[in-house]
Write a structure and sequence with these properties.
This protein is an all-alpha fold. It contains 12 helices and no strands.
Length: 268
């Protein structure tokens, strides 16, 4: 691993941790950054495998709550409904991700102009939804109905298009179906665990023949950076969105997408 590769992996790992749990599309950011940095890896496995760092960050922050839910499962119908809701929300993207894996990795991931477009479109949608006067009916993720969890999962399918954002898609869907901003963001944290873990395992299996020792070292650098940054972001983001909403992230997307288009026009 060269020094340049090390620094590129570090930058991309920090970027993954910074953007995974805010509605700006971590995949879109690291694919665009990787394009302009000239960072290449066969099968685009780096971009998926470093998500393990972000998964572990959520686990570390929510471990106490996860253990309580697990302990309550035998006696609490609310806990069982919550777990069932997460499973239902996970399934649509899991099925579609497997069916269209090759298209996603070989076409969509390799199209920077598409990523810039979806970043901007998603930003405009997020800005519009954030400005709507919506009356929340659900403020606790433990009270989400199973039917609504499934619908949130259908929104998550949009995130298979790089630049759309997994958290952005699920948050917009949640808000439109009557949740408040804080619980919408928290639900997407919990939904991230099976979704990202599934993507990690499936992508590692699909690319097992091209994973090398050097490649794993590069992934390890990105993984550690993503974990540290994601812990900071997860602890901060719920309080921020409760007080300020999502306008900052909407403009962030629009600006990054516009800069991406400018970079493509100037640099190719």
């Amino acid at each position: 691993m060269t020094l340049e590769t090390f620094f590129n992996a570090l930058i991309l790992g920090l970027l993954e941790g910074l953007t995974e749990f805010i509605p700006v599309s971590s995949t879109g950011h690291i694919l665009l950054a990787g394009h302009f940095l000239g960072f290449e890896n066969e099968g685009k496995i780096f971009e998926v495998l470093i998500q393990l760092g972000a998964i572990l960050a959520v686990l570390s922050v929510y471990m106490a709550k996860l253990l309580k839910i697990a302990a309550d499962l035998p006696s609490s119908s609310k806990a069982r409904r919550f777990v069932a809701g997460i499973v239902l929300a996970f399934l649509p993207a899991a099925v579609m991700g497997v069916l269209f894996h090759e298209l996603i990795k070989t076409v969509l991931f390799e199209t920077p102009a598409l990523i810039c477009t979806t970043l901007i479109i998603g930003g405009i949608i997020l800005l519009l939804v954030d400005r709507m006067t919506l009356q929340p009916k659900y403020t606790d993720i433990m009270d989400y109905p199973l039917s609504m969890c499934l619908k949130i999962g259908l929104f998550q399918v949009l995130a298979l298009i790089p630049g759309m954002s997994r958290s952005g898609s699920t948050i917009v869907g949640s808000l439109l179906m009557g949740t408040d901003k804080r619980s919408a963001a928290e639900f997407t944290f919990f939904l991230a665990m099976p979704t990202m873990a599934g993507a990690f395992v499936y992508d590692l299996f699909q690319n097992r023949d091209i994973v090398t020792t050097d490649g794993l070292m590069v992934v390890a650098v990105g993984f550690v950076a993503a974990f540290i940054m994601a812990v900071i972001v997860v602890r901060w983001v719920l309080d921020y969105v409760s007080q300020h909403g999502f306008a900052l992230f909407a403009w962030w997307r629009i600006i990054v997408g516009s800069i991406g288009f400018l970079g493509l026009a100037l640099l190719g």
